[in-house]
Amino acid sequence: MEDLSRGVRSFTLGTAVSRVMGLVRESVFAHLFGVGAATDAFNVAFRIPNLLRDLFAETALSAAFVPVLAGEKAKSKEAQNRLASNIFNTLFVAAGVVSLAGLLLAPRIAGVVAFGFGQVPGKIELTAQLTAVLFPFLLFVSLAAWAMSYLNTEKSFFVPSVAPALFNLFSILFPLLTYGWYVARGKEPIFGMAVGVLIGGLMQFLVQMPLVRKSGFRWSAVLSFRDPEFRRVMALFVPVAIGLAGTRINVLVNTILVTPLAEGSVSWLNYAFRVMHLPLGLFGIAVGTVALPSLARFVHDNDLDSVRSTLADSLKMVLVLTVPASVLLAFLAQPVTRAIYQRGRFTAEDTAATAGALALYALGIPFMSGLRNVAAAFYAFKDARTPMVASLVSIAFNIALNVSLMGTLGFMIFPLSTSLAAALNVGILLALLPKKSVSVATAPLVRFTAALVAASLAGGAAAWLVNGLSAGRFGTSFAATAGSVVVSGLLGLAVFYAASRLLGLAEVRDFLRRLSGRGQISTH
Description:
This protein has two domains: 5-440, no CATH class; 442-515, no CATH class. The chain is built from 23 helices and no strands. The chain has helices at residues 5-33, 37-56, 58-75, 77-104, 106-113, 123-134, 137-153, 158-162, 164-184, 190-206, 209-214, 228-244, 246-258, 265-300, 304-331, 333-341, 348-362, 365-380, 385-409, 413-432, 442-470, 478-502, 506-515.
């Protein structure tokens, strides 16, 4: 079994910088624009290239590209670079054409996705204009994902994970610097946010290229659809995109369905979704990203014992990192939302609505994280069909829940259905793992998870109690609210750790020691 903790530590450190910057970006966004027609329009317009980002880039590209590229690397650097150049050139052309088409067809796209905005004059038109501005983001972020995949194959995780920090930086600075300029000229200032996103996407790609070059990549003008290795990547790509983009597809479906609901519903869900992505990105996505190249190599070597042990270890690591984090986030959803967002145009009513959605999203963090790892095992075997089918089943389940209950529960059904759909998705894949001659012992994993949930609930309850006692004692400023959250969270984690020791969860200590660089893989 390979110890993934070093790669996870490197990825998590870089991601922590990026995700914290992302929350700062969202805080600035909330301060400048609050919740209303303009923010709803921006969130819907950005949602479209974001979905395509997952279809063309990031998780989907990595899952299809990394296993094949790892095999080419084993042959020679020349073979690796030929395939990498072919994929780069294909992405450049394909994402460029789609970006241009999206720009030209923005009014039609907005009319379909944001049909529910028709009851507010000018809202669909604003969505269309923002869609046209934002679509080229797809090209930049696709190339950034290509660079990330190449570096991950080289076992380099820090720079790719910290690269989004530059995206967030420009998404913060540009709207701040141009807000007054737009207002003074009678223009909608949220366009400054859209332009900042474009610049940030370009920088996310460019910052990785020096290290890509240093890793030995040399570009060549190859664009061959007949190349066998290219065809292997493409044969994986479409089903991988559907399988790994299940959550994003659910989000897009949710967006279409939620647009007829009360104004602000889209923005509340988006603000909550962004906070949920902090622990998801720090821990869940980190483990899955680091595990994929290792699993692919073990499959290539036909070392099934290492596949089984590495997968089991990665799943337990994900659970140890995400279960307590998600429980704490659910218990502290209200003060966390208040600390991040409630200022400027973002009101106390917005905080209450966003916090409710955040608590429900938090329930799905362990499932979304576990899904990434279990799916990686299938992709390592170059099986993209099974995750795709499981994803489609979960999407259908998500849509059915939303359509049947949105009239009763309003926008709150959307985060709940997202979490439940992720649970169903990972459950299907775990049940089908034995068909790959690998499996995870279910009974011990269930017992481990149950004990982990019990310890996490103890920590969450303690954090909620401490926050309730301290809230408002030192005022309602950002510093006071954030300080209360930090103190409550740390005490909650201390209670969780103590409870985990009482319940005999030695793995909690082992993983913490390994991730801190002070321990080795436990043999028990």
